[in-house]
Write a structure and sequence with these properties.
Strands 1-2-3-4 form a four-stranded mixed β-sheet, sandwiched between helices. The chain contains eight helices and four strands. The termini are far apart. The mean pLDDT is 79. The chain folds into three domains: 82 residues, no CATH class; 71 residues, no CATH class; 40 residues. Helices cover 51% and strands 9% of the residues.
Length: 263
Amino acid sequence: MESESQTRKRRIDASLEAAGWKIVPFGDGLGIGGLRCHAVEEYPTANGPTDYALVAGGQMLGIVEAKKLTVGARGALTQAERYSKGVADSPFNFDGYAATNELDYPFSIFVSLALLKPVTPFFSSGYAEIVMNSDVIFTQARERVSGIGTPDLHLVEIRDFRTPLPPLSEQHEIVRRVEKLFAFADQIGARLEQAQAHVDRLTQSLLAKAFRGELVPTEAELARREERSHESASELLERIRAAKADEAPAKRKRGTARKAREA
């Protein structure tokens, strides 16, 4: 029977790499801001180190826990959630969310999921997804959650949710407007990324100019503008060398006179 570390190396690492993730160990000084598609091993959290933290585009997307084959998945999911909540400035949403299932083949669902089937003549799936992710439903869900370690929301409570049900034509209009707003938000996000990339390039350009001394006028430039004399570094160095050369014979003469007196 393989151990948990063997499971990670033989199965999880191979699966992550096959999916395009580059596995890197966590170390001091490692910042996720520069990671693009990486699985960070032993990423520290307030609740202990997690097996893998998935990072794409500088943003953490998920926590992965690897267990040996004899351990059930439910315990791993609970542990992954605990580590997720221990991530500093956690980006994760622990309230849950609804999504439309458009699969056209048989599938199975596991714990922490509920499958809702709207009555299609009166309830469109697009509107159902929007309303289930709204504060109207989230407020009712929080009021009905039970449990301490792992909060649960049972189907019985979900069936009792009071859901706004406008006419079907109005539902379609709501979906259309929400999709339009999301598309506009995506455009703003794309522009923001372009602006950020421009800022990054500008920052590098400014730093390069600063190191080359191009951001402020040099002393020579100021002297020319003010029509005054200016001694360049090479001229100053030559003057210092000449002064030292002039001092050397005088020191030799003083030394010779002192020796003569002593004699």
